[in-house]
Write a structure and sequence with these properties.
The protein has a single domain, classed as Porin. Helix content is 3%, strand content 46%. The protein contains one helix and 16 strands. Strand 6 and strand 7 form a beta hairpin. The N and C termini lie far apart (45 Å).
């Protein structure tokens, strides 16, 4: 049991170091998709499909996202630290390998996935570090109505740990019970707009059609309970979120979301 928890403890929180990022104005063009301050499509309309390319918190870049020509996520990166995720897909677009990158871009952990038949959700996988000789953990996924269970199995001692993800009828994640970290994430009061969680590496367990307006995280030693107030673009995607601790009228964070049009 302890071995599994040690090997999986950081899988369920994307740990990001928020650092300042200075930009040379000479190279800063909000209309250029290659620019670090790209501001998203200059004109969007209702019905446009957009892809999240950059996420900022309090004006600092937290993550950037890249996609292939089929609009599938291929890279998540913190541009300041180099940490993030590299995604490898087969010729049908299914995710078959996910590399977890530590600061500097070095592979820290690797997940590999297997699928059953023509399904688009993995049924099994393995988790291991390519930098040591430890045996990989086996991962089993089961799907039942609105629930996904993820079980880690240590083949050496037979120990198991199971995380559970629960969704509403629209496909929005409402509860993640992460036994590996002792944490519970509760998302609620979803809006009726387009969600941007499609830019997460694990769409079968961390996903949402819409945007949560309340997020509560309970972990050993701390609890956050926050309200998100969004503003949206013409295509119905969030452009900004002011974040408040529940019961307070003082914003503690400002999140900004930048997009490009899908192919």
């Amino acid at each position: 049991m302890k071995t599994i928890i040690k090997k999986t403890i950081w899988l369920f929180f994307i740990t990001i170091v928020v650092t300042s990022c200075s930009k040379d104005k000479e190279y800063c063009d909000p209309n250029d998709e290659e620019s670090p301050c790209y501001a998203g499509p200059s004109a969007v309309s209702p019905g446009d499909k957009l892809l999240l390319v950059e996420w900022k918190v309090n004006g600092k870049i937290i993550e950037t996202y890249q996609y292939n020509t089929q609009n599938l996520l291929t890279d998540v990166r913190n541009p300041e630290t180099g940490g993030g995720f590299d995604l490898t897909r087969d010729n049908t677009g299914k995710l078959i390998r996910l590399d977890h990158l530590a600061a500097g871009g070095n592979v820290h952990l690797r997940e590999e996935y297997s699928y059953g038949g023509t399904g688009d959700k993995p049924v099994s996988g393995i988790l291991y570090s390519p930098n040591d000789n430890n045996d990989p953990l086996t991962i089993r996924y089961t799907y039942s109505q609105n629930t996904v269970t993820q079980t880690f199995i240590d083949e050496d001692d037979g120990g198991t740990v199971t995380n559970t993800y629960t969704f509403d009828n629209k496909g929005n994640l409402i509860n993640a019970n992460l036994v590996t970290t002792g944490s519970i994430i509760e998302n609620g009061n979803y809006d009726d707009k387009n969600g941007n969680l499609a830019s997460q590496p694990w769409p079968w367990k961390f996903s949402a059609v819409n945007n949560p307006q309340a997020i509560k995280t309970t972990s050993p030693g701390w609890v956050t309970d926050q309200i998100y107030k969004y503003t949206y673009n013409q295509a119905g995607y969030p452009m900004k979120a002011e974040v408040y601790n529940r019961g307070s009228d003082v914003a503690v964070q400002t999140h900004e979301y930048f997009y490009k049009k899908a192919n």
